[in-house]
Amino acid sequence: MSQLLESHIVQLLLEKDERAISLLYDHYADTLYGVALKVTKDEELAKDVLQESLVKVWNNSTSYDARKAKLFTWLFRITRNTAIDKLRGLKNKVEKEIQLEVSHVYTIGENSYRPELLDMKQHVNALEEKYQTVLDALFFQGMTQQEASEALDVPLGTVKSRLKIGLRELRKVFGTQALIMMVMLGS
């Protein structure tokens, strides 16, 4: 590219003349697309990066300083940084998304919806008090079995037995959903 053409493009950018974008596109788009593609390794993403880069060039045209860098170097840096930022944004988005299709969490389907299980704590209160206190400590207060043993001042084996009996009693009334609901409520 000739120095004269580069100076002309810079002047048009500084004047916010839209012809500058056409000239930039005609003379630099293929190379800048190649830069974006090399970073993103995705054709559609590289096209988006090129477009965003040209918008940034237009919006920040007054920040270009010919004494610090040639026009192409400035365009290259903007495009490369835009591509890197785009990849980081996508990576963060993917990390934050919940991957439902690979979830190992048990979900209760519509067919297994049972209104009587919605207020599990009320149903726990129908049990004998010794079972209530253990279930309450483990599932509603979030204690471990050892912590419940110490807090209730009963042996660990007794906590385990009362847990087993309490859950068995709930299963008699509500089926296996009771255990699932207890675990869900406790978490």
Describe this structure in words.
The structure is a single chain. The longest helix is centred in the middle third of the chain and has 26 residues. This protein is an all-alpha fold. It is built from 9 helices and no strands. Helix 2 crosses helix 4, helix 3 packs across helix 4 and helix 6 crosses helix 8. The chain has 2 domains: 94 residues, Orthogonal Bundle (Rna Polymerase Sigma Factor, Chain: A), CATH 1.10.1740; 77 residues, Arc Repressor Mutant, subunit A (Orthogonal Bundle), CATH 1.10.10. About 6% of the residues have low confidence.
Jot down its keywords.
mainly alpha; 187 residues; Arc Repressor Mutant, subunit A; Rna Polymerase Sigma Factor, Chain: A; 2 domains
